[in-house]
């Protein structure tokens, strides 16, 4: 039997793979997406994790990149059901002692954010307002850095001017985010929120780079959307856009090999032995699985082998996802000062000081579940009643945990059985109505579950990162930049966050390499 033929094949139907597939098809290519699971989306995943009728996002929770994401706008994803809601009160921290909450609103409500921070420090309120205003004025340059600018020199210049305008020196770029936060802000409350906000993006504030402060703590803090119906609705819309462009979506098709010949990708082989020929292969899987598992150790180049050896999975980006089905949403002690904490989109619960957040991070990254079972929480049913039965509520959260291999399966089973109860006890101290009687059911999804179900090694939602920051800054090596792998026609597109940027960049590289139409270009977008 002659092998099937496509112009391009995509290994894995995560959101980045779907993005690359949609653009390739729009450029006139015959495209097949081969997904091992029964549905698309990867971490853009919603499930009735507790009891039927309560919908919980088991991984991706909030969408920060909607205003910038080319895929969302170029393919009219709202027309396929990806409807977004943007709560005004975006990020908050409630306190056990009932003192006023710290609240951060959308950028257009800067005066409300200023007023909340000023409860703790007028200095901090002024500095945060000034920094955020300058960062948001440069948001297109920051987005271009993520999505691949048309004019890199101009973007570098814009970002350099922003850095200087923030009062930062070149030496500050290499400093940990925590050092910059502590230098800029004096209140333990704001420091605590910003440490945790840095952590949300898998950046250890004790290490990292100064630019993590700009990206994680400022730019991505307060531009969050929730997906009506759960984040899986975004994945379904992406798949529908692919189908409209003529992409073949092949579910329950596990790929066992990426074939190459004389340094060029030639296609894939499925688990059942069927061969698929293609001139372009895009992998939505992580670098280790792609190179050592699919390309195979006998075929990887020395450069590819060095990239894998210089790669690590976790401890950053490793999550536990608690899900609670509730009779009523939490009513925080801090609400007596400002009731907006009860309608805050992302609410941080369990810390009283910045030091407690710092210790939490150090414990999680040291290979043990944090002693203080604090969490970031979302109760999406406050804005979207479709995610629970009438009058009820669905909560999701994030714990930061050790990587999957740090604990045995028995130890993870113990964590799964006990950690939510410990969090609920802490939650009740902040919101007295959060008793066991208010909980209909709960569940906990661990890094081991994420690894097994979603294929993310170690439960790492960033698909790993280079071991050194210098390698990260340099794109690992010249041929690995822009999704290229060193094998002609083979591209990588896994990444951190639901930005669809790696898939977008992989398509642009393939288009450049194969002379495909630049269907991504728009006059009103610098990337």
**Which class of secondary structure composition applies to the elements?**
alpha/beta
Question: End-to-end distance, in Å?
Answer: 43 Å
| Rg over C-alpha atoms, rounded to the nearest angstrom | 23 Å
* CATH architectural group of the domain at 4-45 and 68-81 and 228-310 and 466-514: 3-Layer(bba) Sandwich
Indicate the overall shape.
globular
Task: Summarize this entry quickly.
The protein has helices spanning 15-26, 70-74, 110-118, 122-137, 139-147, 152-165, 177-184, 188-200, 210-219, 232-244, 287-296, 302-309, 354-365, 409-430, 447-454, 469-473, 501-514, and strands at 4-5, 8-11, 31-34, 46-47, 56-57, 84-85, 89-93, 102-105, 226-227, 248-250, 255-261, 264-270, 275-277, 280-283, 311-312, 319-326, 346-349, 375-378, 393-400, 439-445, 465-466, 490-492.
Notes on the structure:
Helix 1 runs parallel beside helix 17, helix 5 (139-147) packs across helix 6 and helix 8 (188-200) runs parallel beside helix 13. The model is unreliable at 469-479 (pLDDT under 50). A seven-stranded mixed sheet has the order 8-7-17-18-19-16-20, with helices on both faces. Among the domains are: 4-45 and 68-81 and 228-310 and 466-514, FAD/NAD(P)-binding domain; 108-221, no CATH class. The chain contains 17 helices and 22 strands. With 527 residues, it is an alpha/beta fold.
């Amino acid at each position: 039997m002659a092998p099937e033929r496509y112009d391009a094949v995509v290994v894995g139907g995560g959101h980045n793979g779907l993005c690359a597939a949609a653009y390739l098809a729009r450029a006139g290519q015959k495209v097949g997406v081969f997904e091992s699971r029964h549905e698309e989306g990867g971490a853009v995943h919603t499930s009735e994790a507790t009891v039927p009728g309560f919908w919980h996002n088991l991984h991706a929770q909030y969408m920060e990149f909607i205003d910038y994401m080319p895929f969302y706008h170029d393919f009219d994803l709202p027309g396929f059901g990806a409807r977004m809601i943007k709560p005004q009160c975006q990020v908050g921290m409630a306190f056990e002692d009932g003192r006023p909450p710290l609240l951060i609103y959308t950028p257009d409500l800067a005066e409300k954010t200023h007023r909340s921070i000023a409860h703790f420090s007028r200095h901090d309120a002024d500095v945060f307002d000034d920094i955020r205003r300058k960062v948001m004025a440069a948001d297109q340059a920051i987005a271009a850095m993520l999505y691949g600018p048309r004019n890199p020199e101009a973007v570098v210049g814009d970002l350099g001017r922003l850095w200087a305008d923030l009062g930062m020196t070149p030496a500050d770029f290499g400093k940990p985010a925590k050092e910059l936060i502590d230098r800029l802000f004096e209140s333990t409350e704001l420091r605590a929120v910003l440490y945790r906000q840095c952590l949300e993006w898998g950046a250890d504030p004790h290490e990292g780079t100064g630019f993590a402060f700009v990206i994680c703590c400022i730019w991505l803090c307060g531009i969050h959307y929730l997906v009506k119906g759960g984040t899986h609705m975004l994945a379904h819309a992406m798949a529908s856009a692919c189908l409209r462009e003529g992409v073949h979506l092949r579910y329950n098709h596990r790929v066992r090999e990426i074939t190459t010949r004389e340094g060029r990708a030639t296609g894939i082989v499925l688990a059942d032995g069927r061969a698929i020929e293609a001139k372009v292969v895009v992998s939505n899987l992580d670098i280790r699985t792609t190179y050592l598992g699919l390309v195979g150790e006998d075929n990887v180049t020395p450069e590819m082998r060095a990239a894998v050896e210089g790669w690590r999975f976790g401890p950053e980006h490793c999550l536990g996802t608690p899900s609670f089905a509730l009779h009523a949403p939490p009513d925080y002690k801090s609400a007596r000062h400002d009731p907006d904490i009860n309608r805050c989109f992302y609410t941080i619960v369990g810390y009283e000081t910045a030091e407690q957040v710092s210790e939490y991070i150090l414990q999680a990254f040291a290979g043990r579940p944090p002693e203080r079972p604090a969490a970031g929480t979302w109760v999406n049913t406050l804005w979207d009643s479709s995610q629970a039965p009438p009058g009820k509520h669905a909560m999701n959260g994030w714990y930061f945990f050790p990587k999957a291999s740090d604990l045995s399966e028995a130890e993870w089973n113990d964590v799964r059985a006990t950690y939510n109860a410990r969090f609920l006890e802490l939650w009740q101290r902040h919101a007295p109505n959060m008793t066991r009687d208010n909980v209909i059911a709960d569940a906990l999804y661990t890094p081991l579950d994420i690894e097994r179900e979603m294929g993310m090694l170690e439960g790492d939602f960033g698909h790993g990162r280079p071991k050194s920051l210098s390698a990260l800054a340099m794109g690992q090596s010249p041929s690995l930049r822009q999704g290229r792998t060193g094998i002609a026609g083979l591209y990588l597109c896994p990444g951190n966050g639901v930005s669809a940027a790696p898939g977008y960049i992989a398509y642009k590289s393939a288009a450049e390499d194969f002379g495909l139409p630049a269907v991504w270009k728009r006059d009103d977008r610098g990337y």
